[in-house]
Structure formats: structure tokens, C-alpha cells
Amino acid sequence: MTPAWTLSSAFLGALLVLLLPVRMAAASRFIALAASLVGAVAAAAACLARLNNPAGPAWSFTRPWLPTFGINFHLAADGLALTLLLLTGIVAVAGVLFSWNVERRPRAFFAFFLTIIGGVYGVFLSRDAFLLFVCYEIVILPKYMLIAIWGSTNKEYGAMKLTMYSIGSSALILIGLVVAYAAAGGTSFDINYLASAHYAPSLQLWAFPILFLGFAVLAGIWPFHTWAPTGHVAAPTAASMLLAGVVMKLGAYGALCVALPLFPLGFAAWQPVIAGLAVIGVVYGALTALAQKDLKFVIGYSSVSHMGFVLLGIAAATHWGLRGAVLQMISHGIIAGLLFGIAGRVVYERTHTRDLNALQAFDLWRTLPGAAVAFTLATAASMGLPGFSGFVAEISVAIGLWQKFPWLVPAIAAGIVITGAFSLRALHKAFFPVRSASAAAPPPLAPLTWPEISAISLLIAVSLALGIYPKPWVVLIDDGLRSPLFHTILSQP
Amino acid sequence: MNYSELFKQLLPEAVLVVTALALLGVAVATEAKRGQPMANRLAVAIAALGVVLAALALCYVPVAADSGKSLIVIDPLARMFKGVVLALGLLAVLLPPARREIQHPGEFYALMLFALTGLLLTTGTNHLLFLFVALELASLSLYLLAGFSRGARAAEASLKYFLFGGVSAAFLLFGLSLIYGFSHSATLSGVAAALGAGPPPPLAVTGLVMVVVGICFKLAAAPFHYWAPDVYQGAPATSVALVAAASKAVGMVVLVRFLWIGFHSAAGSAAWGGMVAGWSLWLAILSAVSMILGNVLALAQTSVRRLLAYSAVANTGYLLVAMSANGKLAAGAALFYVIVYGLATLGALAVSAAVERDRGNDSPAAFAGLVHRSPWQAVALLVFLTSLAGIPPLAGFVGKFALFSAAMAESTRGGAPGLTWLVGLAAIMSAISLYYYLSVLKQAFVRDAADGESAAGFALSPAHALAVGLPAVALVVLGLFPAILLEPIARALVGSL
Question: Average per-residue pLDDT in chain B?
Fold first, then answer.
């Protein structure tokens, strides 16, 4: 099974779902589950194969696509891309399970869902800038539709805001890419070729921020992060999981694997600015989360804070920093998926409220103990307690930052403390309220269903696996960081 | 050249004219006796058959390169774009008018064929006088077609189109005569020879400015676009489809021929920091104005057809970005994009015509719940509008990407900023355009039909279904495999210029 199965299973699944006759619409969830399972298994198999044979050549696939412009259909997967494929596969499976009860227009829902998954796989696999950009933009329209049709809370506004931020940031990426293409001689869009070309320092100085900002907006960089909480809250559960879990990673991945390698000198000049914005994002996101009343907004702003760590790791640009950034991408993907799944699907569908004060009346730890346990574990992982994935990732980023910008480490320490505060506040208010003895008995709630239990167990298991035994993930990520793309960046003093 | 050679070269045009005459005859014979719908269907069938036969005839037209004196040129570019014009023309013929049925279908479709004849002749000439005559044949037919449904709006559209078009023709003719006066040659290659390599004399520059203005009227580039919104809104959808797609493609071919063969030495430069007066710079300025004006005004429209008109202005801006880069790769990308743009606009007009027939107006609200009323049309509309917005994997995306990267690659030398200012503006304007396209798609996919409006489905006539379906399929196929059209265009340009 080659890594290409991830991409093709998602797009074929989407097509198949669309072609289902109306009376068989209920079968679309099974097709979606099968397609995302195939993708996840293919990604896992490719990861294992790479671990067994780390020295061999990475898998790749090339066909000419548009020869006049030097565009090829070029897919390849090194270890770094493989870990992100696996993350996507896992979040996709969990997303389908958490959407098991979608009754309204299920065919369209799962077709859009699988298209997003396919586009995400495509970005991680592309080694041609054109193909990468195609996959990056394929995601935009399904995101809009998922939020605007199946969303809640100001959905049309949230969907349009998110879409305009996405398309605006892609315009910046487009400008950055064609500038690089033209300056490299106008012969090829291959990323390795573009990265090996020499660009004048003056060009890098203005072209880098354009390209980097384009990607970083999608990663939720402060002050261009406001689309993220609004969009995530408006989105239906599966879409929130995808958006926070994997789509934000596209931005971080592009910044790391396209913007940095293309314009290393430009990056060196802007490095302190990026680090500063990322630190503000970490602290600001956490502080804002502390003040939210809606459980989903708490998680939305915590995403901004956690993605700040990813950008910090990238800004540090040492080996530890980059590795930590990728680990944090994976860790946050899993944890955000879990948090949004529990808040949006398990709790909201039963209580029909996400207001932290209103939730107190439900006494959730008695009426829905499974969800309370799961949310407690997810909160622990999100706070970065040892044993969970968050710890491994944040400690790596902190070490990387110490090597480059030691005076920023206290700021992220503060961020971690505030993260603990808002996480415990939300957990306490939503799940473990203090109730007076005279309060009315809470209404009984339906127990967890099997898709919910399987999705929650899957995500918690992965977070624990990464937290307790990070070695295979680190080996794979380091395999990717050895690529020639990062030579210039990592050899900087 | 003998007359049988000439006849062979003009076989497609001859087929169209004969069909048009036959159509007039049949119209006279049937109109009095049969009911309207029958006469209408018969006229569409004959006209469509004529266009298909003309396309078949095109396969037998021999290639005849420009001898420097000939009126008619059948170079690879002409052959290819005659095919494109016939394909886009066929789709326009299949598309029914939106509101009122055509009163005299025989005359109407005969005029469509005359317009197509004019457009075909225009694509295949490097001769100044012949160019003008052919272009006016097309334009006069289009003015009549715009006013054919006899409503107040159609009359306004037709009159505006005629007045603006007349002025543009005057500009064109005056420019052409100045050019002739300066070069003593009526062919583009003669003009190029008279220009030589040195700086162009004032007379030639004045002539060129007037010709560029004349062509930009036809392309609806701002600030020469005032006729477009009214024509798009008021004229029968069938006529609009011809104006928007085939006529625009021909306008681009004329522009490419004129600037590349005739005035290539007067290009100047629009590169940042190194601007030199010449058509490259003028087109860059027109392009920036068109993109800004078109996109900003489109945001405020409450009629989908007017929205498409402003989107036409904006898209002309993208086309001119590539033209101002002054490179063959960019010109090829522009010719690819104009085809793709034509297909998408034609398709969007076809869906809009269907909605108008069902609902009586073309406000975005009339599209509410389209996905339930007619799922396939909604999907087709999604394809058309997202292709116009430049979202992959559709052809509009590839077209814009090719436009921008070719414009950058050919304007930038050794790390200079080149046309980055214009390409950057185009990329950002194109992102903004998604907002108004999405506001129509939002109605079709997200909202339900308003209270009091029927949510019942509606069917299309077979011809109308083809006018919706064929462009949608073409946009998907060209988006996934752009090389099948982009590479031949690049080869045709190399073989013709």
C-alpha cells in the first residue's frame, strides 16, 4: 500500500458518496468510514515501512502535467510528511465517527468532508508547488459549505469570514510562489528545485513575508487569527475537528516546508518578528480563552494558543524547535479533535447548550460520566501534563526556543500556566460543578454511543502513545528534517 | 490565388451564410402556419446544424500562411480560434432567451449566424481594412441581437450597445487610417516593416492608441465598459452568451495579432522601476483599473446578470495583465483563459436563464434552494462560479495560475520586481471576487426557497440542458488536464506570430 492510497481513497470516497442514489443516502457514512479507514491504514503502513527501512529512498511518484510551465504531478513522502498523513487519517476516522448521526443531507456532508481530507493529504504529499497550491485551495469551498449548511451560532458569518481569510491568504501564497518561480528562471515549480535556486537577498526580504504570512494566517498567527475561533464555533463538530485538527496544520506545514526553504535569508531577517508574534499568540490566546463563556470558544482560543507553539518552534528554527513544531502539530491535531468532539458532539447534542454556566445544571460528571472522564484526560493532555503528547511537544519547542531566543522562554512559561488555568476553569465549570443540595435533580442524558466511545478511545490512545513513547515519531520527523530543504535553515548559527 | 482556393479557405463561413439564408426562407414558410414553440425549435435545430457543419468544414480548410498581402490568413492561430468561436457559438445557439420567447426565431438565429460569420472572418486576417469590415459585420449583428426581445430593457441595452459600439468603431477606423497613412501599408506585417526598430513616430502612436481603445471597448475593459451591465441584463440571454464568450475570444485574438505582428517594437514596458511608454504600460494601467472597478462594483449588484457583467470587466483586467507582460507564454495563457472564461460565463448565463424562466427575475434570492429544485443545475452553477473565482480543480484556476506565473516569468529579469505590482493586485482582486460569487452560491446551496415561492423542481429543454452541461464538463476536464488545450495554443502562437 503506497501513501498514494490516502489521497485516492479520500477523493474516490467523495465521488462514490455523491453518486449514491437518494434512497441509499444512509449508506454514505459507511462509505466515508471505509474511505477514511483505508487512508489511515495506508498512512500507518507507510509509517511502519519507513521505520523499518529509514535509510532507503522515500516513496515518490511523478507524471508530467503541464510541461509548458514545468509543472509535474509530483507526490513524495518523507518521514515528516508521513507522520502528518497519519495524523490526518486518525482525525478523519474520528471525525466520521463523531458525525455518525448526521441526518440532514448526509451525502453532501460526507462528500465535502472527504474532499477536505483528500486536499489535506494532497498538501502533505505534494512536492510540486502548483500541486500543493491546488490541494491547498481545494479545501476552501468544502469548508465554507460544511460550516454554512450544517453549522450553528452565526454560521453564515463565520463561514464567510473563514473563507475570505483562507482565500486572501492563498492570494499571498500565490504571489510568493510565482515570484519564486519567475526569479528561479521560470522553468519549474518543483519545490526542491525552487528551494535550491539562489534568490537575491533584497528579493527574499520582501518575498518571504508575503509567502510566510499567507501560510501563517491559516496556522492562526496573531493578529490574523480571528477567523479561527469564529469559524470553529460556527462549524459542525466534524468540521471543527478537521479545521482545528488538520487544516490549521496545512498553514504550519507550508510555512515550515515551503516558505522557510525557499527564502532562508528572508526568514533570517524576519525571524525575531515571527517569534514575537507567536509568543503574543500563545499568551493572548490563553488569556482570551480564560474569559470565554462558550465551551467551544474556550477550545477555539486554546487552538490559537497551541498553534502559537508551532509557530514558535518554526521561528526558533533549531533542530529541537522544528521537531517540536511538528510534534506540536500532531499533538494539537489529536487533542483539538478530541476536545471539539466531546464539546460539540457528545455534550452539545444532549444538552443543547455550550454555555459554561448553563452546563452546570446538568451535573455532567454524574449524568454523563464517560464524557467527563474523557474531557478530563483531554484537558490534561492539552495542559501538557507528562505522559500525554502535549508535554513532549511543548518541552521540545521550549528547548529549541532556549537555544535561539532564551529571553522568550519565561513568556511561554506564563502561557503554559494560563493554559492550565483556563483548562481547569472550563473543566470545572462544565463537568464538575459545585451544586447546592437543594438544586433540582439534573435531567437524565442518553449514554455514550459506540461511535463516540470508539472515536474518543482512538484519540486518547494516540495522545498517550505519543506522550509515553515518542521515539518512533521523532525518528520519522528527523528523517524529514534531514531533507536538503532544511540544510540552509538548520546550518544557521 | 484563384477563386476555388478562396472558396476552400472560406468554407466554414460559406456554410454559415448558406444556413442563415436557408433559415430566413424556412422562417417565412413556417411562421404563419405553425405555433411559436415549434418554429423556435426548428430554427434552433437548423442553426445548430449549420454551426456543426461549419465546424466540420473547418477540418478541411487548408493552412494558408500570411503572404504579406493577402486579405485572409489561415495560420494555426486562426484555425484554432475559428474552432473555438464555433464551439462557443454553438453553445450560445443552444441557450434559450431568459424571459420573453423570441418573436421571429428565423431572423434571430440567422443574425446569430451572420455574427458568427463576422467573428470567424475577424480571427483570420492581418489586413487592416478587412479586419474592420469583418468586425463591423459581427458588431452590427450583435447590436440587433441585443435588442431583439423588444422589451424596454432590451431596447435600452441595444441602444447603449449601438452608441458605444459606434464610437468604438469610429476610434478603430480613425486609428487604422492613421496607421495606414503612416505606413502606406494595409497589412500588419507592412506596418511592422515601416515601424522598424527605432522609436515609433507620433502618428503611429496616435493610431495605435485609438485602435487599442477601440478593441478595449469590445473587450469591456474599464473605463470603456459602460455598455456591458445593461447589455448583460437587458438583452436576451442567447445574445449575451455570444457577446460574453465568442466575441471576447475574438477580441483577444485581434489584440494579440495587432500588438504582436504589427506593433511589437512599440511595446514599452510596465515593469516596476523601469516603465517605458508603450502598449505594455497602457494595457497594464487599463488592467489595474478594470480589475479594481469590476470587482468592487460587482460586490454591490443585486442582479446576477449585472454581476456577471462586472465580473466580465474584472476578467478582462486579468487578461490584460498577461498581455502587458509582452511574452508569448503569457499571450498563450491569456488565450487559454479567455476560452475558459467564456465557457464559465456562458454556463452561468445558462443557469441564470433557467432560474429566470422559473422565477421571473435574476436576483440572487431567486436562486434560493436551487440545490433542492434542480440539483444538477446547482452543481453546474458551482462549477461555473468557482471556476470564475479561480478555485481548483477547475479550468479557471489553471487559467489564472498560468496567467500570473507567465506574466511574472516573462516580465522579470534577474530578480527585478517586474510586474509583481500588477500580478499581486490581480491575485488579491481575484480573492475578493470569491465573495460575490459565494453570495450567489450561498443562496443556491445554503438557503431554502423563500416562503410563498414554490420549491418544486423544474426541467430544462434538451438544448438548454446541453448549454448547461457541456461547459461544466469542459471546465472540469480542462481543469484536470489543462495541457490538452494550453499546449496546442502555445504551439499555434509559435507557428503564427
Answer: 89
User: Does residue A229 form part of some domain?
Assistant: yes
**Better pLDDT: A51 or B32:** A51
User: Within a domain: residue B21?
Assistant: no
Chain A contact present for B332, CB below 8 A: yes
pLDDT of B32: 62
**Under a CB-based contact definition with an 8 Å cutoff, are residues A332 and A310 in contact?**
yes
User: CA–CA separation, A203 vs A199, rounded Å?
Assistant: 7
* Contact criterion met (CB < 8 Å) for B486 and A68: yes
Nearest-neighbour CA in chain A from B440: distance (Å)? 12
- pTM of the predicted protein model: 0.93
Reference A71, options B40, B169, B482; nearest CA is: B482
Contact check, Cβ <8 Å, A174/B404: yes
B445:A149 CB<8 A: yes
Helix residue spans in B32-151 (DSSP H): 36-58, 76-94, 105-123, 128-146
- B413 inside 8 A of chain A by CB: no
Assigned domain for A440 exists:
no
Q: B489 in a domain, yes or no?
A: yes
- A145:B446 CB<8 A: yes
Collect all residues with Cβ–Cβ distance below 8 Å to A50 and sequence separation of at least 6: A58, A79, A82, A476, A479
B208 within domain boundaries: no
Task: Return the pLDDT at A493.
Answer: 64
> Across the interface, which of B391, B431, B483 has its CB nearest the CB of A65?
B483
Regarding beta strands A71-77 and A59-66, do their DSSP bridges make them parallel or antiparallel, or are they unpaired? antiparallel
**Set of chain A residues whose Cβ sits within 8 Å of the Cβ of B401:** 130, 133, 174
pLDDT tens-digit map of A390-448: 899 999 999 999 998 899 889 888 989 999 999 999 888 888 887 776 677 777 888 88
Count of the separate structural domains present in chain A: 1
Nearest neighbour of A179 by CB, restricted to B332, B408, B446: B408
Structure-block grid coordinates of residue B124: 483570420
Q: Do A182 and B409 touch (CB under 8 A)?
A: yes
A439 occurs within a structural domain: no
In a domain, A91, yes or no: yes
Domain of residue B277 covers 268-497
